[in-house]
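Late entry, written up from scratch paper. The run itself happened at the end of the previous shift, but nothing got recorded in the book at the time, so transcribing now.
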Amino acid sequence: MIYKLYASIFPSLYNGLIAFLYILLSSREYPFLFQKSFFVRRRKNLSLFFNMQIKKSFSMSSRTGRDLQRYNHGCRQVVGCIPYRCKKTDQSSCVQRTPIDDLEFLLISSQKNPRMMFPKGGWEIDESLEEAASRETFEEAGVVGEVEVQEYLGTWSFKSKSQGTFHEGHMFPLRVTEELDDWPEKTVRRRLWVNFSEAREVCWHPWMKEALDVFASKLSKRKEGPHIFHLLSDEGTVVCCS
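Output as recorded:
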């Protein structure tokens, strides 16, 4: 299963390469490429570039049908996101070690009832896991941003009460960079921004609450800072961070 996950993510590295070339060609400050100030100045441009590419690739009509649906030993493959943002107006100040209490989380209502949940949907065979996560979040919640693939939260097995079948749900954090006024499922869903405690309380699905707890745990470890450890190899000792 882990092999399949990484195999689905690697194709998306192409988009990262394109973004890097965009930054490189749009700037004449080559001597300062590896200075921190360079990346701070270019972060907003990079976010705008990704958002533009995402909105170009998505349709204003949600995907329907199961012809392209992925299955793993009979289990439907589902991918979802936990969209979040800083409570501060300036989202560029939302850094990796931001405390959980300084974040807001976006939940959406079900199409059939008022129950609140994080956006999720089917992972299809013509897209990577990251692409599916972005698409479903755009279609259902009307936000775009950065799917934090490196912070993959895990896979949960759950049974769909409406269909009576087992699903496997993959979850990622998504740092929201833009909230749209119009999106495919605007007329059938309601959006709600809440803090961490409220998100745990109102989220209907227990497995999504577990994913939120995993994200909070990861965030607390970021706040503590990197952990240094050593790996022994034939060539000598390699110092690594986690």
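The longest strand covers residues 166-179.
(Scratch paper discarded after transcription.)
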